[in-house]
């Protein structure tokens, strides 16, 4: 299945956490098929906190959505993620953005990710690796990405 995953870090060695999370996601059931550059982004959501580094990857996985979510959560825990403040600072956050064309509305797993189309820190790196993508809302990614809002590190 074609899946897009968003990663974010704004505590500690952000490059290390992003790299380790991506390495940990790759395995016999999940291949990384594309990876965006890293973007440095202003915190979204109204909490005063350090700048984030964000990245989006595409994977090809045979795992079901909940199993993939649990893999992501184990990696978050291993990399020192503590759940303190909603939308607050974290060593690593791993979100399932789009899982093929699946829709899921449980608290544990919402697919597609509910804030997908409101977050430039997701949309801009997503467009980098999937410029032809039609979003779950039916709009093309090019229509919804605001120009010049977030920038890659290099
Ligand atoms: N698509 C999804 N990807 C990751 N976690 C999800 C998803 N949908 C629901 N969740 C649930 O959301 C919870 C994550 O809460 P968390 O504290 O990480 O939210 P957040 O990262 O602060 O906010 P946001 O989910 O808006 O990025 C987890 O318990 C997880 O089960
Ligand atoms: N720029 C940016 N802002 C955020 C981020 C993030 O990854 N990047 N994650 C959040 C919690 O989900 C809240 N705000």
Automatic annotation (TrEMBL):
What InterPro entries does the record tag this protein with? Hppk, Hppk_sf
The reaction(s) catalysed by this protein are:
6-hydroxymethyl-7,8-dihydropterin + ATP = (7,8-dihydropterin-6-yl)methyl diphosphate + AMP + H(+)
Give the molecular function GO annotations: 2-amino-4-hydroxy-6-hydroxymethyldihydropteridine diphosphokinase activity; ATP binding; kinase activity
Which pathway does this polypeptide act in? Answer: Cofactor biosynthesis; tetrahydrofolate biosynthesis; 2-amino-4-hydroxy-6-hydroxymethyl-7,8-dihydropteridine diphosphate from 7,8-dihydroneopterin triphosphate: step 4/4
Q: Which Gene3D superfamilies match?
A: 7,8-Dihydro-6-hydroxymethylpterin-pyrophosphokinase HPPK
The UniProt entry's GO biological process terms, in alphabetical order, are: folic acid biosynthetic process; tetrahydrofolate biosynthetic process
Indicate yes or no for the key word DNA damage: no
What are the protein's UniProt keywords?
A: ATP-binding, Folate biosynthesis, Kinase, Nucleotide-binding, Transferase
Q: Does the keyword ATP-binding apply?
A: yes
Name by which UniProt lists this protein: 2-amino-4-hydroxy-6-hydroxymethyldihydropteridine diphosphokinase
């Amino acid at each position: 299945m074609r899946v897009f995953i968003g990663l974010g870090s704004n505590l500690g060695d952000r490059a290390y956490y992003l790299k380790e999370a991506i390495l940990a996601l790759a395995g016999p059931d999940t291949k990384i098929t594309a990876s965006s550059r890293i973007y440095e982004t202003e915190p979204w959501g109204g909490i005063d906190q350090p700048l984030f580094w964000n990245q989006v990857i595409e994977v090809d996985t045979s795992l079901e959505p909940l199993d993939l979510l649990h893999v992501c959560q184990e990696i978050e825990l291993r990399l020192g993620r503590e759940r303190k403040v909603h939308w607050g600072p974290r060593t690593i956050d791993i979100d399932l953005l789009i899982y093929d064309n699946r829709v899921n509305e449980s608290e544990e797993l919402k697919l597609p990710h509910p804030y997908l189309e409101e977050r430039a820190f997701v949309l801009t790196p997503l467009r980098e690796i999937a410029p032809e993508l039609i979003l779950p809302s039916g709009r093309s990614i090019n229509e919804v990405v605001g120009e010049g809002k977030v920038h890659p590190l290099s």
